[in-house]
Amino acid sequence: MGGQGIDAHQHFWRLARGDYGWLTPDQTPIYRDYGPADLAPLLTEAGIARTILVQAAPTEAETDYLIDLAAATPFVAGVVGWVDLEAPDAAARVRDAARRPKLVGLRPMIHDIEDDEWMLRPSLAPALAAMAEAGLVFDALVRPRHLPALADLVARHPSLRVVIDHAAKPDIAGWRPGDTRFQDWARCMEGLAVRGVACKLSGLVTEARPDWRAADLRPYVDVVLRAFGENGVVWGSDWPVVGRGGGYRRWRQATEELLDGLPETWREAVLGGNAARVYRLSG
After folding, report:
1. Cα dist from 171 to 117, 154, 217, 276, whole Å
2. What is the pLDDT of residues 164-174, one digit of tens each?
3. Structural domains in the chain?
């Protein structure tokens, strides 16, 4: 698949930092430290040259940690961090973050917030406007129930670049293509695509049954490809979380099968070109 690919969604973490509330000992096999040396061999094997490092804790201290790691890790081309978007000085914090090396986006951990319409609170508007002005991407870590609110957010902030993480985490293990929940998800995704939102082809395997096959993912991947098209789909591994769904190699192999038959220009866009453009990566 070429040697210039981009993995647009990966994580590093160090448990001793203590700010990963979701990462508990029952989260096997990912409850351990993960750093650049663990990922590098997988990238080489897959022919991936660069990555986007994504936050995994809702703290600005973790964002500092990731930016320091990125500075010391040549293959990390960008960082999606976290800022308290409801802080009284949130807009200033966003502007300060945007000046930091390799910081390309911000990601509130929306799927852990009880209020499904949290992103529409007026208190967030100054920070979101500052993100748009600074050219930072809003990584939308959402579930299907959040998609109507996300559509309203995009309408309110048309200049804000938005990328949906993990195709909004459809319940692949519990749904069946064609049922109402699948149709509602597909319709919402199509509506967002029309508004210029992009979507990460990532995180699907951890929403599927443990014995998943590529065929189980195909209906969902087909919706994403059809809705967001050649220029709106961005591939990511969700490593090391993907270890709970078969691992990096298995997901990459499934990706090759799922994209087979697309024109080469389309495949290259999904596997790297779109990430470079959407996140405005240098080089």
Report:
1. 20, 24, 11, 29
2. 999 999 999 99
3. 5-278 (3.20.20.140)
